[in-house]
Amino acid sequence: MNRVSSLSCLALLLAATAAPAIAAPGETAPPVGAARDPATEPTGAASPAGGEIIVTGRRLDAARDSISPALGASDYSFSRAALDKQPGGANVSLSGVLLQAPGVTQDSYGAVHVRNEHGNLQYRLNGVIVPESISGFGATFDQRIANSIDLLTGTLPAQYGYRTSGVINLKTQSGAFANSGEIGVYGGSRGTIQPSASIQGSSGGFNYFASGSYLQNDLGVENPAPTRTAIHDRTKQYRGFVYVSDILSESSRISAFGGTSIGKFQIPNVPGQAPAFTVNGVSDFDSAKLDLNQRETTHYGVLSYQYSGAKVDFQVSPFVRYSKTEFRPDPNNGDIIFNGFADSATLSSLATGIQADGSTKLGADHTVRFGLFFQNERTRSAVTSRVLDGSFDEDFNFTQSSDIPRTIADRGGRNGQLYGIYLQDEWSITPSLTLNYGARFDAVRAYTKEQQLSPRLNLVWLPSKGTTVHLGYARNFTPPPQELIGAPTLALFVGTAKQSQLTTADPVRAEREHYFDVGMEHRFGNGLKIGLDTYYKLKKNLLDEGQFGSALVLSPFNYAKGKAWGVELSASYAHGPVDLYANVARGAEKGKNINSSQYFFDPAELGYIANHYIFTDHSQDWTASGGGSVTIHDGAGTLVPTAEFLYGSGLRSNDPAGIVPNGGKLPAYFTVNAGLAQNFTRPGALKGVTIRIDVVNLFDKSYLIRDGSGVGVGAPQYGTRRGIFAGITKKF
Predict the structure, then answer these.
(1) What does the pLDDT read at residue 30?
(2) How many CB atoms lie within 10 A of CB 319?
(3) Phi and psi for 69 in degrees, rounded to 5?
(4) Is it the case that residue 391 has pLDDT exceeding 70?
(5) Of 13, 76, 229, 729, which residue is most buried, by most CB within 10 angstroms?
(6) What CATH number corresponds to the domain at position 595?
(7) Which domain holds residue 532?
(8) Are the CB atoms for 84 and 92 separated by under 8 Å?
(9) b or e along 197-223 (b: 16 or more beta carbons within 10 Å of the residue's beta carbon)?
(10) How many CB atoms lie within 10 A of CB 41?
């Protein structure tokens, strides 16, 4: 696919091997038996038969990508080489990688926001949607499984539905017709230890890749205090992934892949908190000794059959995903002494479905693409609450009437479906002008029953060599995340400390959006690429999420109206041993009138928002990122110093005057990470070894990600303080 950078304002600074791009019209896959360049082929493919298999595999990869191109959308791509060059290399979390893309904002619990939206991110592996997990602290995917990572934003073509603020597609490693492996260990500050291993290989047309990693440290969740170390914050995380594929013929193959993610998290404590209630005669408790814990589990699997013929390409992929989150309160009644109640909560979701995508050429100027999606999801919630009885006065101040907690069980479940079909045409009007137009129809049948026909239109113009201009419109339909809707029975808690001040609980609705995007990019002959992208969104039933309970699982709600706008600039420079990149974005999102799940909110807060647009809590005015690396050839191999920075003007907080919800703003921050890697490539015992040392938050800046205030915001969180890490890996 031809790519031209998406523009950045710091054109002289930092642009990566991961370069932003607006996707231009795609090129066709090479024919079977096309000439091969031995210098670019993996090792272990010497025989003619093996060479034909390699060519077939590459052609099928190209055909798979051409079924669902991002024509007219902004595509920011991270190659495997770029991922390995960043400070931390393959040990960086997926969210840490995404923060280096334009318009991506940092938040607590490892969350990121693309173009100031909360969530609304879709994850795909090899083009197949993997339904989102129940949100928490842990990442489902380990970026070390990816051969490349693409972040697609803007007015997406019709094949992309449901979650549309950003589509994150991981093209997984697959064996690459070569036998190899890697083993390593990484660790350092805050008790961090992170061993990992992978293996890949092939036999004839059969390929396999497997990867596993373990992470343990004492900062599983952001520190709620500005100290260098957190109290009660140990985490243990396990991730595994397996991919296998078999080429059945020169036009077809079958593949299967799946993975697992298991995370155990202690919830960090803030010392010095004042107890508010008496439980079994005890009214004193040291908040530093609270023992709250959360466990998160996700398993997923996909089976794909792909066919690439002379006239039609298609891929059919059934999938399954199971996700479960378990929150356990303090066993010594600490939660109740501070809050008046304690919840033991278990949420689970089982999603199964099928995705099918295809394309066919109609003459020389038209490529028609089509597809369908179906998902059935079964969600269950089981919350056992231990509560104190009492009464509320007219100002909703609670007075307990008993110090003996009683137990209330609240269980629920829902079976829901998503349906979607799409049809679109890529029309090459002239060699330099392409129109991609189409529509998709989606329906949701779960907590809400809604549907929408969504037209999509993208015009891509290549006015001169190296320049791409695009103009796009998309009508989007975003169903509420069923796995996060608990639907509690509010009447059960009347007369207890858990009673809601409001009982209004209108259902969460699907978001409907008009999305406009205009951008241009230019590639200079010296390796410099620059671009500019602007967007505007109008929303009905804007979806947002907040933390409202003890468990650190977010709950969705709607603003009746919403609007967002933004400008993104980026630049990259890649020439010889130097790779640089930089991005800056300006934007905002606002909502008005909360019209679902009102019981989460204070009546005064709801009253103001009913008549005024307010900033959403995750809206950030300015975001910037950048970095670079230099590859130095030395006597042992290559020495790669690397650095990256992240700037944020601050997320929203409460108005200091106490009038406007989300009317305040947190202080700005600027952090720098740096690393140095020595790759041994010369013959000898050290060949294939990489030794690295990295420093996170080089200047030890203490900064707030959240201060605990704002609409739907939980506890405060501080950014990670300085940490020093080292690692060694061996390829074989």
Answers:
(1) 33
(2) 21
(3) -75, 160
(4) yes
(5) 76
(6) 2.40.170.20
(7) 3-731
(8) no
(9) bbbbbbeebebbbbbbbbbbbbbbbbb
(10) 18
